[in-house]
Amino acid sequence: MILIKTYIEQLPPALEESASLDGAGYLTCFFKIVLPLCKPIIATVVVFVAVGQWNSWFDNHIYTRANENLTTLQYLLYNYLNEAQRLAEQLKNASSGADMTQAMASLPIFALYPFMQKYFSKGIMVGAVKG
């Protein structure tokens, strides 16, 4: 929320002022001017939340200990990674299966990032323009 609030505060107040002079209300200014300009920061927050949710194996570890049938994909990958590392240590070969498991666990995030890349580059360019 702080990231979005800071981003909105750095927008030029002249945009809202000109819209209000044209007769736009507060909600119209927000939905037609401010929100479309916030696409880069919203995309950034979406990626942060997606990565955080994808890595949230610990919630499943705590809340579903009693029933092993209620596991999430993240928790299964975590268990698989731990087992692969344990076996690799036993075989004295640290790169046997752990590297492949880590790559598979990161695949959804790698698939999401290219779709959000255009918003990141727009956000960088907006910050570089002097008004």
Question: What would you note in describing this structure?
Answer:
The protein is mainly α and 131 residues long. The chain is built from seven helices and no strands. It has helices at 2-9, 13-21, 26-37, 39-54, 57-63, 73-91, 98-128. Helix 4 runs antiparallel to helix 7 (98-128), helix 5 (57-63) crosses helix 6 (73-91) and helix 6 (73-91) packs across helix 7 (98-128). The longest helix has 31 residues, at 98-128. Residues 127-131 have low confidence and may be disordered.
**Which blocks of ≥5 consecutive residues have pLDDT under 50?**
127-131
Q: Biggest sheet, in brief?
A: none
> What is the global morphology?
elongated
| Mean pLDDT across residues | 76
| Distinct helical segment count | 7
Give the structural class. mainly alpha
Radius of gyration: 22 Å
The helix content is over 70%
Percentage beta strand: under 5%
Number of strands: 0
Distance between the termini: 26 Å
**Quaternary assembly:** single chain
Order of helices and strands: HHHHHHH
